[in-house]
Specification:
Blueprint: H1 3-12, E1 16-19, E2 22-28, H2 32-49, E3 54-57, E4 61-66, H3 77-90
Antiparallel strand pairs: 1-2, 2-4, 3-4
Helix pairs in contact: 2-3
């Protein structure tokens, strides 16, 4: 992916930003129940995409980082597809 493609994606999905060679999003919820709902909803999407992000969560926050390790730790089309699906889950 070139930087213009990534910038365009971020303009369409503002939950996400680029940090180095990763796409990153942070989500905040009212409480832990919101976190658990997102985590449970993420699992089938991750399996469907066969692309496994790093997910970190706390009491009311979830951070998701995605990069393509098999492509040399770069942002690829797989990352954009997964990130878009994740954003649609949250909205």
């Amino acid at each position: 992916m070139n930087s213009k493609e990534i910038e365009y994606f971020i303009s369409e999905f503002p939950d996400w930003y680029q940090e180095g060679d990763e796409l990153v999003a942070g989500f905040e919820f009212k409480d832990f129940q919101g976190v658990t709902v997102l985590i449970c909803d993420l699992l089938p999407v991750i399996e469907e995409c066969n692309h496994h992000p790093t997910v970190t969560f706390g009491y009311n926050t979830v951070e998701i980082r995605t990069t393509s390790h098999d492509e040399g730790n770069k942002i690829t089309e797989k990352d954009l597809k997964l990130a878009a699906k994740i954003s649609r889950l949250v909205t």
